[in-house]
Design goal:
By secondary structure, the protein is an all-alpha fold. It has one domain (26-279). Helix content is 72%, strand content 0%. It contains eleven helices and no strands. Helix 3 runs parallel beside helix 7 (163-187), helix 4 runs antiparallel to helix 6 and helix 6 (116-153) runs antiparallel to helix 7 (163-187). The longest helix has 38 residues, at 116-153. The chain starts with 25 loop residues before the first helix and ends with a helix.
């Protein structure tokens, strides 16, 4: 009587030994995720519109400052350049996650690389590289605009970019990109993720938190703990986070407020979203 060994393959079935096949390098996965951000129609047009908006805002500001004889420095130009970047580019972070479900590319991505958290890590690295790259571009365009302004106005060109303020500007952009990324993982729907992100990052600070900050006695004490705009305001020069935001002193409490707001809007969505992505069914 013959017996079949447990590891013997059924008759007619061929096995493929992949035990010696090298794993996909993480750097290659990051390059793939970077390419996936821009080689789709949505990514291409979003990048093109962002570039056109950047040029349009530069031209508008240039005309306004020259027509009204308003002085502007390199630091002012850098702040101007970050506006269009913060308005549209976080959508790249959202699409990098939700496209796997809305366009069903996850069937391919998670088959070629079954370790989902590795893919999420590659997407996260791609988002960070996108933030750094766009901020470098903003600084370069700001420098060019500053030179052009000096030549057209006849005023002395002022190079006064504060290193600390520029650093926190980059951190601010990064936090909002990560917020968009975390919300996208948590929601896994492109329209819903975009809507929630812009409500949290734009509508609430200006339409709700602004009046509360200005009119309610406890507003200035509470809002910096729960909103990134107000938490970042002192580190970005003390203004621009919303109506009624005065120049604020940077203290230890400022960093504590930023940490708590980051925990609420960045860390928590990232953790819960990562857990959902790891367990979500791919259809």
């Amino acid at each position: 009587m013959s017996t079949v060994t447990p590891d013997a393959a059924p008759r007619g079935v061929r096995t493929l030994d992949v035990s010696s096949t090298p794993k996909v390098p993480f750097s290659r996965t990051v390059r793939v995720e970077l390419r996936k951000m821009v080689d789709t129609r949505a990514g291409f047009w979003l990048l093109l519109v962002s570039g056109l908006l950047l040029l349009a805002i530069t031209a508008i500001v240039m005309v306004v400052v020259l027509a009204n004889d308003i002085g502007i420095t390199a630091n002012g130009w850098v702040q101007v350049m970050t506006v269009p970047l913060s308005l549209l580019l976080p959508i790249f972070a959202i699409l990098s996650v939700t496209a796997e479900w809305s366009q069903r590319t996850g069937l391919v991505s998670f088959t070629l690389e079954p370790h989902r958290l590795k893919i999420i890590g590659a997407k996260l690295a791609a988002v960070v590289l996108l933030v750094i790259g766009t901020m470098v571009l903003a600084a370069a365009l700001g420098a060019v605009a500053n030179v052009v302004y000096g030549g057209l106005s006849g005023n002395e060109v002022t190079w006064n970019v504060d290193g600390s303020e520029f650093f926190w500007t980059v951190v601010s952009q990064l936090l909002y990109f990560l917020m968009a990324f975390g919300l996208a993982m948590l929601i896994l729907s492109t329209p819903a993720s975009i809507a929630v992100f812009y409500v949290v990052s734009l509508l609430l600070p200006f339409m709700v938190y602004g009046p509360v900050y200005a009119l309610v006695s406890w507003g200035p004490d509470v809002l910096p703990w729960i909103d990134l705009n107000y938490a970042m305001a002192p580190l970005l020069g003390g203004g621009g986070a919303g109506p009624g935001v005065p120049a604020l002193e940077v203290t230890g409490t400022t960093y504590a407020q930023l940490a708590v707001a980051t925990l609420i809007w960045v860390v928590l969505p990232m953790v819960l979203g990562g857990r959902r992505v790891a367990r979500a069914e791919i259809k």
